[in-house]
Every structure is written in structure tokens, then in C-alpha cells.
Write a structure and sequence with these properties.
The protein is an alpha+beta fold. It contains 9 helices and 19 strands. The relative contact order is 0.13. One of its GO terms (cellular component) is cytosol.
Length: 448
Amino acid sequence: MLTVTEAQARVSDLVTSAKNAGADAADVLYSGGVSTEVQVRLGELEDVQRSEGEEIGLRFFVGQRSASVSSSDLSADALATLVERAAAMAREAPEDAYAGLAPADRLFHNALPDLDIDDGCDAEPEALRASALEAEDAARAVDGVTNSEGGGASASRSIMALATSHGFCGGYQASNYGCSASVIAGEGSDMQRDYAYRTARHLADLDSAASIGRRAAERTVARLNPAKLPSGAMPVVFDPRVSGGLLGHLIGAITGSAITRGTSFLRDCLGEQVFQTGVSVLDNPLRKRGLRSRPFDGEGLPVAESAIIDDGVLTSWLLDSASARQLGLEPTGHAKRGIGGPPGAGTSNLHMKAGAVSRDDLIADIAQGVLVTELIGMGVNPVTGDYSRGASGFLIENGEIGAPVAEITIAGNLKDMFRELTPADDLEIIRGVDAPTLRIDGMMVAGA
């Protein structure tokens, strides 16, 4: 794997080669990574995986025609062939009036911010194995656990570099660590399974393996002997384990591609009250040690914290340069991309701000409802906002969390759900997308 400096030199050189081959414009993205993952089960080593890889992708523009090609072979001969192939493909591609690089006057040219997303450590396989064993041992030690699906630990480092023909070149490196456990409680047809995991940029920030294991076991044992839940309209409370998924549906509905295609249930809601007053959703790509932090976007534009939802109001679409041109707007610094193909748009470290009430107070007046801790399936229509998901969790009766429930279905419409949503004050910033406990009244629930 290349260093950041080497990667920047490589993408810059390939842009020059593309220009020499007749490109009117070009950009090049490099992605490299190395990772080690250890899995154990029932106290024995089950698997060790070590992977190293790197890819480079070239977008080659001839007027309004373009082609994207990529290669995992970074030798001089392979890259020369890559440029030739891209040039030939671009000249035969259809014209796209909105294709092109980001505006040159908007490019990021400052010193990279210190995001502290690489701790410089290298976790050895022996240390990862010890963490995986510690997580599983802690989970298996909890009363009620009868079997294990295993414990795992991982460490990785990635490098990204981007160069464009109109003046941008940048790159950065990031580390990532993870630990997980998954166990089974009960016997026969009464068995239940659950899990816990954590990831962090710095090894020192990762929860202890034992605490992760205990959390997995306690969640699993709590699911034993599920009760029946009557069907009907009732409040549904989303645990922080799953509440961030609602933000995912929001983001999918406000990306430039969804708006330009007219395939979003929020396509007519810009500047409108989408959530209750007091609800705000923020995206912060510059968060120190953030799991999705980045110093610039996928087109080389500067990034900044933004309130996508401000006091309940939808403030902006998420736009890459192509969708911005199509809408007659400016790109928003939310471009994201992979090695192949053009950029799209998305968020980085996303969270909904904490509300003003505690979780206990949020559910105190619920006579009958359900606390959802797991969602199953993808029954969401992005055009209409219709929402129907399999779920499991716990009964809420007279303001108290009660017996577990499983194999239920919750349904509603995301527009209505957003308007009815009330956040608790228990936000934790521990993932790439975070939200506190959320209550939504009037959802339809079908019991097993």
C-alpha cells in the first residue's frame, strides 16, 4: 500500500497522463487499505483474515462525454493501458449536459484540518485474538447464555487520495478498530440471539472487550420468552440501536440524485417544516476522531458542519456538482464516491440533537406501546415514504418496559412519522449515524 504522499503523487501523475492523452478534464481517485480480523468461537480460534488492497480510478472527460475506468494493478504499463481505455470509451460515450468536475473556484486549497483519525498504532493478531476471546468469554459467563456465534476483533488502516485536472490534489489516512460478540440464549424453539459491537478510530477509544461481551449477553437473555402483542395503532419507541436508521431514510430522500429524478417523498419540502419545532439534524465531517470524518469531499470541495434539519425545517438538498448543475444550484460539499463511476452525495458524521426529556419521561404516559430494538427487512418506498418493517423489542405497559416481543411489524408513512417524532435526551455519539431514543405516536403495529 502506498503512503499518503506516494498516493498523491500517483493520482497527480495519472491526471497528467490523461491530459496528455487528450482529456479536456480528468480526476483520479486512489483507495488503499490493509486490515486484520480475528474470529473466535467457543474459546477457540476460528478464523484469521489479513487483506491488503489498492485501487485507482480515472474519470476522463472529452467535452460533455466521459468514461470511468479503474484498476487494481498500479504498474506503469497497467496505468498506461487504463488511460488509453478511458480515452477510447469517453469518445464513444453519450453527452451529458451536467457532467464535469466541481467548480474550480470552490476547490479546497487550505492546509488539511487535524481530524485525528489515525492513531498510528498497529494491532497485532495476538492482541486481536485476546480481545475477541475476552469479549466472547464475558458473554458466555452471563447466566442464560447457552451457545455462542463467536467473538471478533479487527484493525485496519486506509488511505485515500484525489487529484483533479483543474488544480486539486489531497489525501489522508485513517485507522479503524472494532470488537464484537454474538451469543445465543435458551434451548430448542425458544432460542434467542443478539449481539453487540463497537468501532473507533483510536484503539484507546474502543470500549473494553469484556463490556461489549456482557452487553451482547444481557441483550440476548432479555429476549427470552417473548410475549404476544395485540395489533393496532400505538406509540412506537425506537431504541438508539435502531433510531439512526430513520435518519438514513431522511438522507436518501434529500440527495441530489433523488431530487433530480423526482423519486423522493420529500421532493417538494425544501424550506418546509418536516419535523417538530426543536428537532435538528446535523452533519459534521470535521469531528475529531469521527468514524466518517474527512477533510474534503469526493470532488475536492471544502466541507463544514451543517444543519440539514434546523428547528424542524429542511434547509438544503445534499448536492454533488452534477446534481447541483441540473437543479441550478451550487454543490454543498457532500459529494461521495467510490473508485468506479461518478460521485453521488451523502453525509459524514450525522446525528439528531438530543431532546429535552429523559427516556423514562418519554415513555411514562404510554399505556400500551412497543420499544423497538431490532429492525428486519427493507420495506420502505422512497417515492411515497410508505414504511413497513419487521421488528422485535419489548412491550411498554403503563409507562414501564416489560416483556420481550418478536416477529412484529410496524408501519406508517415517513412524512407522518417525522412530524410525530419526539427525541429523548440520551444521545450518544458512538457511530457514523446517531440519534437518541425516538418516540413516534400512532404507528400501526401487527403482532405475531
